[in-house]
Amino acid sequence: KKLPLFYQTIDLFLAGPFGSSTKAKKVLPAKAIEALAVGIPTIIAKTPATQRLLLNYNKTSIIWLNENTPN
Question: Which of 32, 39, 47, 66 could form a disulfide with 15 if both were Cys (CB 3.0 to 4.6 A apart)?
Fold first, then answer.
């Protein structure tokens, strides 16, 4: 019951997965889906898993963590 109230207070969500482990490259945290589902702009690491799982998702709420990293 408290989770929807919590999400109403958020302007920007940090969802991850953060890190360089094998697991981090293969998962999409449930909290990312929850935040995106209610329309909160969400920072998500650009990994093979997140790109594949969010391929057809509304991109206006997704902020890719590694998108603008200088070389």
Answer: 32
